[in-house]
TrEMBL record:
It catalyses: tRNA(His) + L-histidine + ATP = L-histidyl-tRNA(His) + AMP + diphosphate + H(+). InterPro entries: aa-tRNA-synth_II (IPR006195), aa-tRNA-synth_II/BPL/LPL (IPR045864), Anticodon-bd (IPR004154), Anticodon-bd_dom_sf (IPR036621), His-tRNA-ligase (IPR015807), HisRS-like_core (IPR041715), HisRS/HisZ (IPR004516), HisRS_anticodon (IPR033656). Homodimer. GO terms for biological process: histidyl-tRNA aminoacylation. This is Histidine--tRNA ligase. One of its GO terms (cellular component) is cytoplasm.
Length: 504
């Protein structure tokens, strides 16, 4: 009988599907971008607020795109008091709960912004993740469409603050009241037709993706994609489809005003929505935002069901190459609209609200395409090498590191095995360090340190072929008094920065 204990199975390290680990460059790019967004929001008088990742499931509501059940599409767990909680799927529903819960203490209109992760329990795919970041701004308690116009102007200013030029973006604006008027005009008004209306709106929302012919199929019998998968259509007849396609196909809003008024004649909300769009157009024009920046566009349909008035979308209009090698317009990086019913669910009284959300990862991809992120590259730390391991020597090395840090210079003392000095320089090289600080016993006796320019040293080793060129090149290693260490490091880093600037 073999009593030998079984070897314990090694735990397999694995990342959950639909999630990603974020590296330093990605984190810094996001911080750079969100910092610029925050500056614009603050300039408009908005203040930050933060809500938790978890909310009670019933507070989130049935507002997920393409979901028919409250729990579908969200990650949920049961608390010890048997109440269901879910990870938030956007930042708007939690804000509605926050406002309702603190309504007596909040100053209305409540102007706020927040950034954070949201979670979707959906099948992951290329570019489709279960955790991603959004950056929202909202005004709660302002009923007039001037609040919606301001949101559109703030979106435009935000994109420009991030370096996106005029002509490379447009804020497109529509109104759900006009859409509802069109639905009423084709016989889909009333509460009993809500599900049918939603199918029509989802079909319209695919206009950018499938074009008018694809949407026509989705409005009618259905559409089969390239893989053979069939999507059932909304089942409209030809006359209904014609009216819907006319509306979403309007390119010149002013020129089509007469036909639109005729289509919406007799509807309860359609003309009200047109008036609101006209007001938004007048306000943004008065403030200096022409149709090249903020445009009335009836093809805009936001996917979430809770929008009640103006809806808007920020679209980047420049071309990028997709995974198939095709040139395509980059498309939407954020959007939002008026959601007057969301806070009211908790209050039993009308509470108007409007806001928009930026998809941080998608916008970051766009900025990288334009070369607008990472311009201020973070310089790797200066490495102080360890030549002697006695406590006194380590104390001197640590003092050097702290002097550099207190001068706002990134620095670290080598923490690996110091026996092999070559390994220390290899570490610094792999780290991308600009400089290495070296002080052995001889240097210590003289009160000096050696500063090795690792960037210049690498260049010299690859380019210098004779002694004359070597003598004419910038010196790759210098000796300085310990007291001059910080000043010399700062000078050498400045020289390197100048070199990078010239090369770019």
């Amino acid at each position: 009988m073999n009593d030998k204990p079984k070897k314990q199975q090694k735990l397999k390290a694995r990342l959950p599907r639909g999630f990603v680990d974020r590296e330093a460059s990605d984190i810094r790019a996001v911080n750079e971008m969100t910092g610029k967004i925050r500056e614009v929001y603050e300039r408009y008088g908005f203040d930050p607020v933060e809500t938790p990742l978890f909310e009670y499931t019933d507070a989130l509501g049935k507002f997920l795109p393409d979901a028919d059940r409250p729990n579908e599409g969200v990650f949920s767990l049961q608390d010890d008091d048997e109440q269901w909680m879910s990870l938030r799927y956007d930042l708007t529903a939690p804000l509605a709960r926050h406002v309702a819960e603190n309504f007596q203490q909040i100053q209305l209109p409540y102007r706020t912004y927040r950034a954070g992760y949201v979670f979707r329990n959906e099948k992951p795919g290329p570019g489709r993740f279960r955790q991603f970041m959004q950056f929202d701004a909202d005004t709660v308690g302002a009923a007039g469409v001037q609040a919606d116009a301001e949101m559109c102007m703030m979106m435009a200013d935000t994109l420009e603050a991030l370096g996106i030029r005029r002509g490379d973006y447009v804020i497109r604006v529509n109104n759900r009241k006009v859409l509802d008027g069109v639905m009423e005009a084709i016989g889909l008004g009333g509460d009993d037709k809500a599900g049918h209306r939603l199918n029509v709106l989802r079909a319209i929302d695919k206009l950018d993706k499938f074009g008018p012919e694809g949407v026509k199929l989705l409005l009618g019998p259905g559409r089969k994609d390239e893989s053979g998968d069939f999507t059932k259509g909304a089942g409209l007849n030809d006359e209904q489809i014609g009216k819907v396609l006319f509306f979403v196909g309007i390119k010149d809003y002013a020129a089509s005003a007469g036909e639109l008024a005729q289509l919406l004649e007799g509807t309860s909300k359609g003309q009200e929505g047109v008036d609101e769009l006209n007001t938004i157009g007048a306000l943004v024009t008065s403030a200096g935002y022409d149709a090249g920046r903020i445009k009335i566009d009836p093809s805009v349909v936001r996917g979430l069901e809770y929008y009640t008035g103006p809806v808007y979308e920020a679209e980047l209009t420049f071309d990028v190459t997709n995974e198939k090698g095709e040139k395509v317009v980059f498309g939407s990086v954020g959007g939002g609209g008026r959601y007057d019913g969301l806070v009211s669910r908790f209050m039993g009284q009308p509470v108007p609200a409007t806001g928009f959300s930026i998809g941080v990862s998608r916008l970051m991809t766009a900025l990288k395409n334009l070369g607008k992120l990472g311009a201020d590259e973070v310089v790797a730390p200066v490495v102080v090498c360890v030549m002697d391991r006695d406590v006194e020597s380590l104390g001197r090395y640590q003092k050097m590191v702290q002097q550099l840090r207190h001068a706002n210079i990134r620095a670290e003392m080598y923490q690996g095995n110091p026996k092999n000095f070559g390994n220390q320089l290899k570490y610094a090289d792999r780290r991308g360090s600009p400089l290495a600080i070296i002080q052995g016993g001889d240097e210590r006796a003289q009160g000096i340190v050696q500063i090795k320019d690792l960037i210049e040293g690498k260049r010299l080793s690859g380019e210098i072929t004779d002694n004359v060129a070597w003598r004419e090149a910038r010196v790759a290693q210098v000796s300085v008094a310990e007291t001059d260490l910080v000043a010399k490091v700062r000078e050498m880093l400045a020289d390197q920065a100048e070199d990078r600037k010239r090369q770019s």
